[in-house]
Design brief:
- This is FkbM family methyltransferase.
- The protein is α/β, with parallel strands linked by helices.
- It contains ten helices and twelve strands.
- The chain folds into two domains: about 30 residues, no CATH class; about 180 residues, Rossmann fold.
- It has an eight-stranded mixed β-sheet, sandwiched between helices. It has a four-stranded mixed β-sheet with strand order 4-7-5-6.
- Helix 1 packs across helix 2 and helix 4 runs parallel beside helix 5.
- The relative contact order is 0.13.
Length: about 280
């Protein structure tokens, strides 16, 4: 629903009163079989789809990351798949070092062909060494791939492959990384574990973007967990197409296990990005 439609809806809501407005909405829902829940969630940046523009990811890269990270900051894309996000990063950050990390070898081979970034074929995990990684047997380069078998609720059969794993802390130490401007994590419900594996270094990262969706039910990860991990150094927001929803004060109502992108902004940058926060 666009801004004009929202304003019109609010106007009629005030004009009719809450009770009458609710009755009309209920009637229209039954008459038109309109997906009220989907519309409501969509209005708050949830279920915006995976398109880079509509989901707000390109907005974050072009309007926030591009403006507020330094030339020497490294940008890391964990769970890069075949490179859509990395390509958008390169489009808006042509001079930055961008690392694209993808553990699935079949997918990694596609990634290397698609992107002009530094590509790494391993997984970020809380445990180092070889681990089982689960992918779709029917589509080996599907975005559905995870270290957690239970986090892939699909009717497809799964194929188990072996991947190399290191912690985020080990990556930072081994590569002697001085400054991370952006850390993007898309690991199908395993996102909290990825961040936890580099907990000591999170305070230095300017922007941390991760997905929150149905898969987190299976890994038992909550928004509360991310709040507890990050809120002392970062403020949490939900991405929308061209603005941010404020999640800085935790509320259990935030625990909506449907597709959304969460952005953690380091506290010293919150004032700088305040004009993008929806009031």
């Amino acid at each position: 629903m666009n801004d004009s439609a929202v304003k019109i809806a609010r106007f009629f809501g005030k004009l009719l009163g809450k009770k009458n407005a609710t009755s009309i909405i209920t009637f229209l829902h039954k008459a038109a079989d309109a997906p009220i829940m989907y519309i409501a969630l969509n209005h708050y940046g949830i279920l915006k789809g995976t398109d880079m523009k509509n989901s707000g990811e390109e907005f974050a890269i072009a309007s926030l990351f591009k403006k507020f990270i330094d030339p020497d900051d490294i940008v890391i894309d964990i769970g890069a798949n075949t490179g859509e996000y990395s390509l958008t990063l390169r489009k808006h950050l042509p001079l930055h070092r961008i690392w694209s990390i993808e553990p699935n070898t079949d997918t990694f081979n596609k990634l290397v062909k698609n992107v002009d970034t530094e590509c790494f074929n391993f997984a970020i995990s809380t445990i180092e060494g070889k681990q089982s990684f689960f992918v779709s047997n029917e589509n080996p380069i599907s975005t559905l791939g995870s270290l957690s078998k239970n986090s892939i609720p699909t009717n497809e059969t799964l194929k188990e492959i072996s991947v190399n794993c290191i912690t985020l802390e080990r990556l930072i130490k081994n590569e002697n990384i001085k400054s991370i401007g952006v850390l993007k994590v898309d690991t199908e419900g395993y996102d909290f574990n990825v961040l936890k594996s580099g907990e000591a270094y999170l305070k230095d990262i300017k922007f941390i973007q991760f997905e929150f969706n149905e898969f987190h039910v299976y890994t038992r990860s909550f928004i509360k967990d991310f709040h507890d991990l990050l809120s002392s150094t970062h403020a949490l927001f939900r991405l929308d197409t061209n603005f941010l929803h404020d999640l800085r004060v935790y509320d259990p109502k935030m625990e909506i296990f449907r597709f959304q992108n969460i952005l953690a902004v380091r506290n010293d940058l919150v004032y700088e990005i305040s004009k993008y926060i929806k009031r």
